[in-house]
């Protein structure tokens, strides 16, 4: 029983590896499924550890290692493949850079910037482990929310992302924005209810009520819900901190 939380954490890690492999083949549906399954294991490993009253330094380290793969490397792999599908403006498509006497075209080089997401996710997780302010809330976008956002976005908006209305520059800037959100000092809403009173949970109720029209209009639009989550956290910082 004492090894059960670590077993669940390893299941999360395996799911992250499988999601990464699927993403490199452009199998978005399977990659997102594995990220979601990894998030489920990530939720239950902590819950089981608390229920059993056990914790260990190796469990904490293992959890962070699993999370950086499932919620950092896997979404990076999704973005990497997406860079090969999106439209490149003519000027960008013909541009080349010389690195160590190698001529590299921008369309061949830009996809590798996707792995900035993995680096920022690792930094986010390292900060979370050491930041005493995050015991009851989040500072910066949680890595599972970021991973689920990109997975849902690619599944739900793929036709738009690969159309002429979108291009690689927008994808790169959008990715950088989320990298910054991961390590930002923005206080993010924690969906932990200590009780059901409105006074103690008004920010959480505002978020949940706002999710209802989103689900009605876009039942599979998890990325819209995460954008709403970010918007509520930024727009009502005093409520989020309370």
In short:
Helices cover 70% and strands 5% of the residues.
Counted beta strands: 4
CATH class of the largest domain: Mainly Alpha
Strand and helix order: HHHHEEHHEHHHEHHH
Shape: globular
Report the uncertain regions.
Answer: none
Structure overview:
The protein is mainly α. It folds into 2 domains: 4-88 and 102-188, Up-down Bundle (Four Helix Bundle (Hemerythrin (Met), subunit A)), CATH 1.20.120; 189-242, no CATH class. The protein is 70% helix and 5% strand. The protein is built from 12 helices and 4 strands; from the N terminus they run H-H-H-H-E-E-H-H-E-H-H-H-E-H-H-H. It has helices at residues 4-24, 28-52, 57-83, 90-94, 106-109, 116-130, 143-156, 158-161, 168-182, 198-217, 222-235, 237-241; strands at residues 96-99, 102-105, 138-139, 187-188. The strands form 2 sheets. A two-stranded antiparallel sheet has the order 1-2. It has a two-stranded antiparallel sheet with strand order 3-4. Strand 1 and strand 2 form a beta hairpin.
């Amino acid at each position: 029983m004492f090894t059960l939380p670590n077993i669940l954490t390893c299941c999360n890690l395996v799911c992250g590896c499988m999601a990464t492999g699927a993403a490199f083949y452009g199998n978005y549906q399977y990659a997102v499924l594995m990220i979601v399954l990894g998030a489920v294991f990530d939720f239950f490993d902590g819950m089981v550890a608390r229920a059993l009253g056990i914790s260990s330094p190796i469990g904490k380290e293992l959890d962070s290692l699993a999370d950086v793969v499932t919620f950092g490397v896997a979404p990076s792999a999704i973005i990497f493949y997406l860079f090969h599908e999106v439209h490149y403006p003519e000027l960008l498509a013909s541009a080349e850079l010389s690195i160590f006497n190698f001529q590299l075209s921008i369309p061949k080089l830009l996809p590798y910037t996707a792995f900035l997401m993995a680096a920022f996710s690792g930094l986010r997780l390292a900060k979370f482990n050491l930041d005493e302010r995050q015991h009851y809330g989040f500072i910066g976008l949680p890595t599972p929310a970021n991973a689920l956002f990109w997975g849902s976005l690619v599944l739900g908006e793929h036709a738009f992302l690969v159309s002429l209305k979108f291009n690689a520059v927008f994808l790169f800037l959008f990715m950088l924005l989320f990298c910054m959100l991961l390590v930002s000092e923005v206080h993010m809403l924690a969906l932990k209810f200590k009780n059901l009173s409105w006074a103690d949970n008004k920010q959480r109720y505002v978020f949940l009520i706002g999710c209802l029209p989103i689900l009605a209009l876009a039942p599979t639009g998890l990325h819209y819900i995460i954008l709403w989550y970010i918007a509520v956290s930024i727009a009502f910082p005093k409520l989020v901190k309370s």
